[in-house]
From TrEMBL:
Name of the protein in its database record: Quinone oxidoreductase
Domain of life per record: Bacteria
Name of one Pfam family that matches: ADH_zinc_N
PANTHER family for the chain: QUINONE OXIDOREDUCTASE PIG3-RELATED (PTHR48106), QUINONE OXIDOREDUCTASE-RELATED (PTHR48106:SF13)
Major enzyme class: oxidoreductase
One of the record's GO molecular function terms: NADPH binding
Protein EC: 1.6.5.5
Keywords (A to Z) from UniProt: NADP, Oxidoreductase
GO terms under cellular component: cytosol
Annotated source species: Candidatus Terasakiella magnetica
Amino acid sequence: MTNAIRIHTPGGPDALTYDKIDISAPSENQVQIRFKAVGLNFIDCYHRSGLYPTPSLPHTIGMEGAGVVEAVGANVSEFNVGQRVCIGAALGCYTELGNFDQSVVIALPDEIEFETAAAMMLKGMTAHYLLRRIYKITKDDTILFHAAAGGVGSIATQWAKSIGTRVIGTVGSPEKAELAKAQGCDHPILYREENFTDKVRELTNGEGVPVVYDSIGGATFEGSLDSLAPLGMMVTYGNATGPVPDFSPALLAQKGSLFITRPSLMHYVAKREDLLWAANDLFDVVKSGAVKIHVNQKYDLKDAEQAHRDLEDRKTTGSTILIP
């Protein structure tokens, strides 16, 4: 028996239950991992609420974590018992012990601690595809990144600054503005006090930015579009305040022949080679010190309900982990 956080019925944070469950021996292609730390992400809230349905119910949620290999299946040759590993994009991590297909398991470098890995894999690989694949930023770009003091924002801002990119970021409080600035955000905008679109136009001499990274959703969608330069790219990769409103594609033409995408990390790491590319690039920038992972909140796994409440209430900064 092992302890896990599961949902039996989708709902609010109180839908999370701390259950004792049986874990079978790994199947022939599986790796069994004993987690030392697990990451908290907004996608966990989406799985819990039913916005992103889980394959079955009840189901263990959680998409990233790090630990040690406990057992391996007969067809597994890449991993060994006792090896340090991590998960960055696979459902089922809110548990003490879990079985995962070997295709989603990543070897963890000795230089990176378990808690750091648990705090960075999904968020860091998200930053990778945002900055290096959807729109490949350069030192000559100015970008707008919403929630710059959050989990993805903290990593992405540092990564962008290591490339030389100028970063404008939105934040919800003076404390978060200071945090974002300390991590390299050139121009933190307090979105509750200032119109971020007007500020972006001011900071770019009226031109707008070539790309906006928006995980907020409905509350910022129109303003994000209006922050873009002609031919700009709108990347809406989350919806913390709810989905974006319905709109006509003609709106994109009216606002400057804009592009829009609604990506998912799962598609960008579906191939093993792409998963390893993203993970290894992330390991490199963390090991070099260009990106520092800030674990600003820790909860016991059994307290996942409170962790979800704090995340949704915007009480967290940087990365949050759960300790099994």
